[in-house]
Amino acid sequence: MGQGFGKAYEPEEGVNTAGNPSIHEVDGERRHVLRCTTAAVALLMGSHTLTAHAVAAVKGKPLGFTGVPVSSADALVVPPEYEAQVLYRWGDATGIAGAGAPAFSADASNSWQEQLLQSGMHHDGMEYFPLDKNPRHGLLAINHEYTDDGLLHSDGMKTWTVEKVRKSQAAHGVSVIEVVERGGVWRVMPNSRYARRITGNTPMQFSGPATGHALLKTAADPEGMRPLGTLNNCAAGQTPWGTFLTCEENWNGYFATQEKPNPDEARYGMRAKGFGYRWHEFDERFDAVKNPNEPHRFGWVVEIDPQDPTQTPIKRTALGRIKHEGATTTLSRDGRAVVYMGDDERFEYVYKFVSRDKVKPGGYKANKELLDHGTLYVARFDAQGYGRWLPLVHGEGSLTATGGFASQAEVLIKCRQAADAVGATKMDRPEWVAVHPNTGEVFLTLTNNSARGQGSDPARMADASNPRNDNIMGHIIRWREGKGQGSAGRSPDGDASATEFRWMHFALAGDPNAGKAEYRGSIKGDMYGSPDGLQFDAGGMLWIQTDVSTSAMHKGAYSGMGNNMMLCADPATGETKRFLTGPAGCEITGVTFTPDRRAVFINIQHPGETSSERGDPANPKAVSHWPDGPTGGRPRSATVVIRRKDGGTVGT
Ligand code: FEO
Ligand code: CA
Ligand code: CA
Asked: Which domain covers residue 606, as residue numbers?
C-alpha cells in the first residue's frame, strides 16, 4: 500500500506524519467501504448485472502494458500488445429497428432526416450497460456534445437554411446502440430494439422541485413541464439502478439574446450571438429575446433508461441548473444515491446531490423518483486539506426571498447564484469526477485556468486547492468524505453523504521539461496536461483523458506534449503510464469498460479540429483524415473499442 488515508489526509500534506492509523486499521476500513460500494451497487443492480460489478479474474499486472510515447501523428496509437477497432463514427447507422439505416455520405450531403437515424457528431461521455450474462453484449449510451457545422454540411455554413439547423440539432444529443463481440470483433447490431437517437428536439419532461415553475414556462409549453431536447451533452454517469445520466454543459452557446444580456443570462455566459450556431435565425426557440425562459430549460442532468427506447427522458431539476460536466453516482453508507457534478467553467464550483431515499432493488422502475428528492450541496475547499459541503436549501442562510430566491425552484434554476451566495470555492474548471470502486475516495479533474491570478479579486488568486496562478496545465484533486481528525485521531470514514471531507492533490499536471517552474507539475511517470475525462476501472486503476484545446496544442508549454491522450494511474502510488495517443486535432473523452474488463470503449472527439472555430468545408482534411484515411471525405468523431490482442484484462 502506498499511502494510508490517515497519512494522506494530514493537514500539512506530506509533512505531518504523526498519528497515522496502522496499515491493519486502514485495511479494515478499505474492506468496509468495499462492502458499501461495489458490493452494494451489485446487489441493487439485480442478478444479470451482478456480473457488471463482480470483479473478473484478472491476469497480469496493473499498468503492465507497454506505455506509448507522446505523438503528433494523425493516428490512434495504442500499446503494441493491444488493438483498436473503430466502432461507431459520426454518420454511421444507429441501427434503430424498422427505421432504416442510411449510409454516410462522405461529402456530408446526408439530409437532416437521415441524420436522425445516424450517429451524431462529437462523441463525448459514454456508459456501457451489459444486457445479459454475456459481458460482451450490451448497450452503449453515447453523448454527442456539439457540431462543427463547417464539416456537418457539404458547403459548411456558407449558405444557411432551416434544413441545416435541423441537421445540426439532429446531430446533437445521445445515441443508444447495441453492441456485441464475437471472435474478438465488435459490431453495432442493426435493427436493434434498444437503439435510439435522442436529439435537440426530443420531447422530454421536467421532474423535481422546479417543475412547472414560472421561469420554465414558455408559449409552446405554458405549464413548464415538457421541454424539448438536450444539448451539449458532455460527460455522463451511470446510476446503480441502470440508467444513463447525460449532462447539459455549454447550452448557453445555442441562444441569441439582447446585445446586453440581463444579469441572470450573463451569469451563465449568454451572449448576443451565442457561439455562432445561428439556430435562432430559423428556430425562434433559440432567440432568447422572444423566448426568455427557453434558456432556463437547459443546463440540467437528464435521466435516460437505455433499456426502454420509448421512455421520455427526464430533466432532474433537483440536481441544479449549471453547465453540467458529468454526474458520477455512488452510494452512501446507508444506501442513498450520491451524485457528484462539476460545473465546467473557470472559477465555477463542484456540487453533490444526496438523495432523501435509499436506492431500491428493481431497476429504474423502482427508482423513478429517487433523483427528485434530496439535498444539493456545493463544495468549499478550505486550507490545510479540510472541506465542507454547503447545502443549497431555500430558507437557509442567504437563500431567502430577500436574498433573491423566492423558493427552492429558484435556488435550483439560479444554482450558480445560489452557490455564489453561500461562499463556494471557485475552482479551475471542474470536469469529471471518479469514485474509487473499493475505497469510495473521490477524484476530480480541474482541467486548467489561465485566468487564475489575473486581476485583483482575492477569490481568483491561487489558493490551497487551486495552487497555481496561470494554471494552463490543470490538476487532479482527491478527497475522502467524512470528518477527519487528522493527527488527533481517525481518518475520514468515507461515507459519501458526509457534509465534511478531507482533500489533497493527486497530481499537478505539466511537463517536467517546461521552462517555467509552474508548468512542470508533479506527475509521477508520463506527463500530460489539461486532464478532463476520468474513470476508475473495477480494479481501482484511474484512467485519465486529456483535452488540450487546439489553440494551445503543440505550442508554448505544450510544445512537447503532442496530441491528446489517455493514461492509466495507480492511485495508491501515483504511478502514471500513457496508454494511448489520439489522431491530430482530437480530444480523448468517454471511457467505459465491459464488466469482464476485456474491452474498453473510448471516444475520439473532433479529430482534425483546426484552431479556428469551425472546419473549412473546402478543405475538410486539412488537419486529419482519421478514421477513414486519405480516401475518406472528412474526419469523423468515433467510438473506438480497444482490447488486448490475447484477450486479457485491459490495463495489464
Ligand atoms: Fe465538454 Fe467540460 O468538457
Ligand atoms: Ca469534458
Ligand atoms: Ca474539456
From this structure: 7-249+299-644
